[in-house]
Design a protein that fits this description.
Blueprint: H1 2-38, H2 42-82
Helix pairs in contact: 1-2
Length: about 80
Amino acid sequence: MAEAGSHARTAPLARIALGLAFVIVGAGALAGLVYIGNSRAPSAEHALISIGLAGSVLISAIAQGLVIVGLWLLWRAMRRRAR
């Protein structure tokens, strides 16, 4: 019985940690895409050309998915902890 209570307490903490990691990685990727898209630095222009249009759309879609899933995990974990 003690293990069931322990698992019930660590599950929301794991969701919080995973959700926070997803949000940070996703937001960082989106910020990086905005930077290389708007910067005139030679390294940023090279990165933008190397990624290409399809690559930047794919990275953006994955990053947006990470942010949405991360926020959902955080919301679910906080909602369960409040009860």
